[in-house]
């Protein structure tokens, strides 16, 4: 069995060897680090250590304390009873002297160890220096001996070669060689001594430098001041004492919480000793212990940690296209009243739930010192629209033609003739014109016609910005001329900015006069080509079929001039012509494909609706699998009925299509709420921006054409440099859905003179919040519009002098100061009116008349020729001979002549 040495035992129990040797010495056993240790010696050392620790652990002090108090507890019947409470506390403290002795002993041992290490270091340095000197000396002597031996060998070899030379020469050579050898030996010895001395100095310098560095490090550690004792009660107190005291505290806190529960938030009395908090107990412990720990106690976690910000916090405010005032306030972390106040300073009145636009919100946020990040809420919509395969080459497409005109001018007959002659006879019997669009094949190409009775779809398309029509055919009867609905069709065509081809119908009648039609149309900007204009005129007869081919050729020629092109391959896009809800098939939409190819099974995003195309039919009711540009088809499978004029687009992902559709629905609702106050005549002044000319858009309808002309002329004459009247539409007859849609799209008001709106028009007016007014007297109409325009002008203010008084004497009053005794010379003097004090006809003060008395009575008015006392507010320098001028400010409303 291998013997256990002191060194191995120290490594095993992880104790320094010197400390273990010292412990053996304290136990009465003399050992060195290489001596063996027996089992009996180990037991002797262990018993010695147990005795030492037992003596040190006895230095403890235990204190017990009892406190008694009385607690009032509410009982039944409103009576309270007193309960005696006894709190017992037991605290154990560690003797500080034992700790000090242990610390002093540890410091003494550390000091002894440091001294031993320093002594060993100095001895090692001295030994290293002596060894370096001896080594250098030995090397120099050995080198000198080797050089001397080498020279001796060389001399012996030379002596053998020159044995035949004369003796005297040999003697001289020997002497010279000997002298030279002695000189060389002396030189070598000197060099060896210098080399040894240099190495010795270098080693000594290196050892001294290392010793100085170690000494500095040791001295820095030894002389480092003791850090401030930040230990608290939980460090200096023993584990058992802490556990006992914490358990006692928990019992007290638990009893207090139960008491609070039974008392139901009853406030504690001042004399109750249990109001002492745990923080106070901790401070009491620190005070009992004393020492440095009490000065640097950590703050309690129950203390409020909120501090008022030293400066304003600038935030990044993300603003969408529309936002309410309350949402903007939440993003800036301020109250809504501050945002409303900031908007009022900028001249905008708003409530906390009002929707404001992005620009206004940006100005408010920047005014309040925040950084604004504008966010486009339609990013997903743009991403979906951009993720489409539309890179194919452009190809020519068929024109889309809308036929408009008066209902009695043969529009229906013209459509029927074109349809019956240009469609195969075998299919003629199966034609059911129920989708509102069809296409015909001619010798020169294909033409797509849109049937828009009432022009509702056409106006809705223009209102939504969807230019679905390429060419408009204006049908005018040759025997009837231009009618009001013809003028309305011209207005719609000009608003859509599409070319107009005039078809003069009923040319076969004897009373037909095409030249009269041309003359009448020139008044509305439709000029024939032969007269230098841009509009083509074709004389046709829907009954006899005269000029139909010429009309189709004119359409194709106009289309060729327009150079209509579209992408034939790729994902399709189009516009909704009509839509309705079928009881058996669900939502049905007629879509006119503008570009690409619409296939069965495609995912279509159409306005607020979306879905997969489950079936497609053409104008003949036949099932089709694909439809190219300028082809109208009827599709099934949408989630709801889209609105006429909505754009239909094929997308890749049905999930994203649903998200975009839901976003559009929410956006439409926000925009509708935001524009509720628009188009109102009363709010026209609020809508006018500073430095711009406000326009009052009007849609005018009357019972006769003469009234329309008279009212239009009168309203246009009301225009000024600040407010202009613009009549965007006028006509004869009742207010139709077309008029309401036109007014909603153009942000206009509708004026009806002896006419009323039908049911469909009223629905649009109510849905779009259009302002509608009825009149029966032309003067009332003009006066009301003039009054509304006058309200948009800034008012003027005028000062009118109502009285003049001369100061005859001045009195002193303790209440009002200087009182002027006056004689009213002109007009009347009224109390609380603004006044001016004139001295030598020069205004020296302008203020308010505070006191007006006649004798000792307060009066409100003094007439001409009477005496009175006048007290001027905040002015005492009134002198005899001054004139007091009383005036009032009158608001003069501006009117439009």
Automatic annotation (TrEMBL):
Gene3D superfamilies: P-loop containing nucleotide triphosphate hydrolases, Putative DNA-binding domain, N-terminal subdomain of bacterial translation initiation factor IF2, Translation factors, Translation initiation factor IF- 2, domain 3. One of the essential components for the initiation of protein synthesis. Protects formylmethionyl-tRNA from spontaneous hydrolysis and promotes its binding to the 30S ribosomal subunits. Also involved in the hydrolysis of GTP during the formation of the 70S ribosomal complex. Residues 399-547 are annotated as: G-domain. GO terms for molecular function: GTP binding; GTPase activity; guanosine tetraphosphate binding; translation initiation factor activity. This is Translation initiation factor IF-2. Residues 48-309 are annotated as: Disordered. Residues 69-83 have a biased composition (Polar residues). It comes from Pantoea cypripedii.
């Amino acid at each position: 069995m291998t013997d256990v040495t002191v060194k191995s035992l120290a490594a095993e129990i992880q104790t320094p060897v010197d400390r273990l040797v010292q412990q053996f010495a304290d136990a009465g056993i003399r050992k060195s680090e290489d001596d063996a240790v027996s089992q009996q010696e180990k037991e002797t050392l262990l018993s010695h250590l147990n005795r030492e620790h037992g003596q040190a652990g006895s230095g403890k002090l235990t204190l017990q304390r009892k406190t008694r108090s009385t607690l009032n507890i509410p009982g039944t019947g409103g009576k309270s009873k007193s309960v005696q409470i006894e709190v017992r506390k037991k605290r154990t403290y560690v003797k500080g002297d034992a700790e000090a002795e242990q610390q002093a002993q540890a410091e003494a041992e550390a000091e002894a160890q440091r001294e031993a290490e320093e002594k060993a270091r100095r001895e090692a340095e001295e030994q290293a220096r002596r060894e370096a000197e001896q080594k250098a000396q030995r090397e120099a002597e050995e080198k000198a001996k080797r050089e001397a031996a080498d020279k001796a060998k060389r001399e012996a070899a030379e002596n053998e070669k020159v044995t035949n030379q004369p003796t005297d020469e040999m003697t001289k050579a020997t002497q010279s060689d000997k002298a030279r050898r002695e000189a060389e030996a002396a030189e070598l010895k000197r060099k060896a001594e210098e080399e040894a001395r240099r190495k010795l100095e270098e080693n000594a310098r290196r050892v001294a430098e290392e010793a100085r560095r170690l000494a500095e490090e040791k001295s820095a550690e030894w002389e480092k001041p003791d850090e401030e004792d930040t230990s608290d009660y939980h460090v200096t107190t023993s584990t058992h004492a802490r556990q006992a005291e914490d358990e006692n505290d928990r019992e007290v806190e638990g009893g207090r919480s139960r008491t609070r529960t039974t008392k139901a938030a009853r406030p504690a009395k001042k004399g109750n000793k249990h109001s002492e908090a745990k923080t106070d107990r901790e401070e009491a412990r620190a005070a009992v212990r004393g020492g440095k720990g009490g000065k640097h106690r950590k703050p309690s976690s129950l203390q409020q940690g909120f501090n008022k910000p030293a400066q304003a916090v600038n935030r990044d405010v993300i603003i969408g296209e529309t936002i309410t005032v309350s949402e903007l306030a939440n993003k800036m972390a301020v109250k809504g009243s501050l945002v409303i106040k900031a908007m009022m300073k900028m001249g905008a009145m708003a409530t906390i739930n009002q929707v404001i636009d992005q620009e206004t919100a940006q100005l408010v946020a920047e005014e309040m010192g925040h950084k604004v990040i504008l966010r486009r809420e339609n990013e997903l919509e743009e991403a979906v629209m951009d993720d489409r395969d539309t890179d194919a080459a452009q190809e020519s497409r068929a024109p889309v033609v809308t036929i408009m005109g008066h209902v009695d001018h043969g529009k229906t007959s013209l459509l029927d003739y074109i349809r019956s002659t240009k469609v195969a006879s075998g299919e003629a019997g199966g034609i059911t014109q129920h989708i509102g669009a069809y296409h015909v094949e001619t010798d020169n190409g294909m033409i797509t016609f849109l049937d828009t009775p009432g022009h509702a779809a056409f106006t809705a398309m223009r209102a939504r910005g969807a230019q679905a029509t390429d060419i408009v055919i204006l049908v005018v009867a040759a025997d009837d001329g231009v009618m009001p609905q013809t003028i309305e069709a011209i207005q719609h065509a000009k608003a859509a900015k599409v070319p107009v081809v005039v078809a003069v119908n009923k040319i076969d009648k004897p009373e037909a006069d095409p030249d009269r039609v041309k003359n009448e149309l020139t008044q509305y900007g439709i000029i024939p080509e032969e007269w230098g204009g841009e509009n083509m005129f074709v004389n046709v007869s829907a009954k006899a079929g005269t000029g139909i081919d010429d009309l189709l050729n004119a359409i194709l020629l106009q289309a060729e001039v327009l150079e209509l092109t579209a992408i034939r391959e790729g994902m399709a896009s189009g516009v909704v012509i009509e839509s309705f809800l079928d009881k058996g098939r669900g939502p049905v939409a007629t879509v006119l494909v503008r570009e690409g190819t619409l296939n069965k099974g495609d995912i279509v995003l159409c306005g607020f609706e979306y879905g997969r195309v489950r079936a497609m039919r053409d104008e003949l009711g036949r099932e089709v699998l694909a439809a190219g540009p300028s082809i109208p088809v009827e599709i099934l499978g949408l989630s709801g009925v889209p609105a006429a004029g909505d754009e239909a687009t094929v997308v890749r992902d049905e999930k994203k299509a649903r998200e975009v559709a839901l976003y559009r629905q929410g956006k439409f609702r926000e925009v509708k709420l935001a524009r509720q106050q628009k188009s109102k005549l009363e709010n026209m002044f609020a809508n006018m921006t500073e430095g711009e000319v406000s326009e009052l858009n009007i849609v005018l309808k009357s019972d006769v054409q003469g009234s329309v002309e008279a009212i239009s002329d009168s309203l246009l004459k009301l225009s000024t440099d600040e407010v202009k009247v613009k009549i965007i539409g006028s006509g004869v007859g009742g207010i139709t859905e077309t008029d309401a849609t036109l007014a909603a799209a153009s942000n206009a008001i509708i004026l009806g003179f002896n006419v009323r709106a039908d049911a469909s028009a009223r629905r649009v007016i109510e849905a779009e919040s259009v302002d509608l007014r009825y009149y029966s007297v032309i003067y009332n109409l003009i006066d009301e519009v003039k009054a509304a325009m006058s309200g948009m002008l800034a008012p003027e203010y005028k000062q009118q002098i109502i009285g003049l008084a001369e100061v005859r004497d001045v009195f002193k009053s303790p209440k009002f100061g200087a009182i002027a005794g006056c004689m009213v010379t002109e007009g009347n003097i009224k109390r609380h009116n603004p006044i001016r004090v004139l001295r030598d006809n020069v205004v020296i003060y302008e203020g308010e008349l505070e006191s007006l008395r006649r004798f000792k009575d307060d009066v409100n008015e003094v007439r001409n020729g009477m005496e009175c006392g006048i007290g001027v507010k905040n002015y005492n320098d009134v002198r005899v001979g001054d004139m007091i001028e009383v005036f009032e400010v009158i608001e003069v409303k501006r009117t439009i002549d």
